[in-house]
User: What shape does this take?
Amino acid sequence: MRNVKRVVGFLFSVMVAASTAVADTNALPSWNDGPAKSAIIEFIQTATDKANMKFVPPAQRTAVFDNDGTLWASHPMYVQLAFALDRVKALAPQHPEWKTKQPFKAVLEGDLETVMAGGEHGLLEIVMATHAGMTTEAFSQIVLDWLATAKHPRTGRLYTEMVYQPMLELLAYLRANSFKIFIVSGGGIEFMRPWTERIYGIPPERVIGSSIKTKFELRDGKPVLVRLPEINFIDDKAGKPVGINQHIGRRPIAAFGNSDGDIEMLQYTDSGEGVHLEMLVLHDDAKREYAYTCDTKVGRLCKGLALAKQRGWQLISMKNDWARVFAFEK
Amino acid sequence: MRNVKRVVGFLFSVMVAASTAVADTNALPSWNDGPAKSAIIEFIQTATDKANMKFVPPAQRTAVFDNDGTLWASHPMYVQLAFALDRVKALAPQHPEWKTKQPFKAVLEGDLETVMAGGEHGLLEIVMATHAGMTTEAFSQIVLDWLATAKHPRTGRLYTEMVYQPMLELLAYLRANSFKIFIVSGGGIEFMRPWTERIYGIPPERVIGSSIKTKFELRDGKPVLVRLPEINFIDDKAGKPVGINQHIGRRPIAAFGNSDGDIEMLQYTDSGEGVHLEMLVLHDDAKREYAYTCDTKVGRLCKGLALAKQRGWQLISMKNDWARVFAFEK
Assistant: This one.
């Protein structure tokens, strides 16, 4: 056994040495050659090359990814909002008062315009009515059950199929180079955790997001955590670096986003002293996905475009940089 | 290269198969044979044995450890309190008002009794005055600088030498069996993170603790997080399962504590459906460390003793189960 271990240890060190010296340029098959792909490869080569002054030890290789619009589609509406609206419909029989009470009345009537006109306050009411009151484990099951059948309105695909194939390859490429990968999303942490390991290979403890408070209690003698209708943390904008520090405790060296809500996360990463990479997914492909920048309320990218130019953050053009957007494409 | 990978893959799977079939009984050299050591070995054998009905896939092998009194000594006072008192002394020249203002006056006069008589409110004032106002990075450096020279009052050893050798072996044993190990401490998360990787092999993202709020801002043009004098989260008692859920998002299968503050964490672990292990370090060794249960305010273990008996939580008797307490012992 000891000899086997020695042999494995030796071969493994050979492999590691080989893989750090030469980057695997076949790691990103769904990426077209261009500045975005080059920036990724150059960054990983630099960070993993022991001979390079900017070499980063594996333990410090931390990459953060926004979720909505960065790893999966967020148009025409955030997936979690679609979930919340469906939950209102599912729960309506237990809430006869919703027939006359806004914003629930509008949800039940399919009047999205009125729902959105209710602004943040209205959405918060919907979230609290649909996301709180149950145990964390029960909520997790509700999310999984919904995702198993709910479909994207344009493609008719499961939402979990609406993940960007090039980003899955990027996650795998980073993972193969010993990066610790975290999701840092404005979306609900408990809405993501039930499925991120299966879809992205990212385990629950590496998911950071917005949250409501929970309370430890005994229910039927069993210790559980109950979800309370009270905001705990908003992981968006200036909240993203705060969330990163709470959960990771270390400045990332790579950050990927797609909207103005990701600016502070990119700024925080950008201010690191060693090698670092900041990228923004640009939704400029109306044919295969969607095209929007300043002209949307869902994943608006406006101030971030100017900052990207100023700071040298690399844009990822969906149209030009991605040979394929979704795995289900031919 | 592909062939090398295949060979390594094959050998590696042989090793994993071999190591899961037979537990390494030499993994805990500082543990005496007895019920505590047996409980650990039996638990790890069960969780890692694919042939066992209770086998736990590696991704779900999560173990949580309290820190003070479980991984390192917490008597005669919590290390973080010693740090805070030293910081008051170091900062006193900038705060002439402290000469007449409690609880600072008592700290400066070395009158610990008056300090403690101020209760939680007084301690909170000391913590906020010494732990807030600077960036997260500056605070981390202050902690490291202090730990580099501060000594335990009885042994004269660095605090980082006051870690329990048997627990270091337990951490290594769990790690060798693919467990994800987290610290879940009532102590400050940012007080632990700067050194837990070096001392315990536990990286910052796997440290959970109490925290104050932080704020993202630009200081001299550099994006930083500034520590605010405001409680964010208290990771103690019923807060421990809440903290576990926030950071890990999964019920642990092993929990190690030493005081009544760990009860809820053990209850939460105890209610899992598969194999699980709960243990409490019993400080019953006045000669090599300290002896206390109900009769202390620092790491009181009282209600937990009764619950341990009732629930079958395994006690770790420092006196009987540990052949060696500290690495510096002969």
About this structure: Chain B touches chain A through 47 residues (CB under 8 Å). Chain B has 13 helices and seven strands. The first helix of chain B runs from residue 2 to 21. Residues 7-22 of chain B have pLDDT under 50 and may be disordered.
